[in-house]
Amino acid sequence: MTVYKYYAVIHQAEDEDAFIVDFPDIENCFTDGETLGHAVEMAHDALGLLLSVEEDDNTPIPKASSAKDIDLPEGASLVLIEVNTDDFRES
Asked: Residues 6 or more apart from 56 whose CB is under 8 A from it?
């Protein structure tokens, strides 16, 4: 069982029809959602799927930054996302 915790940066899109999510520590991991809650759910799925594939491919997993080390853009929120990669292999 491997559990990871990474911070996601979530901000509202300029057209305000979506919330955009990216992970400062994880390259090429981003998603969005129609509401803030939906964006958090999508962030959980995106992170879990990407990390489970990287584990399977033996790709090094980057160390997670602490909240104080992340530059947060104005108007954005920092949300801690926790995933167990085993859950994504079972589904």
From this structure: none
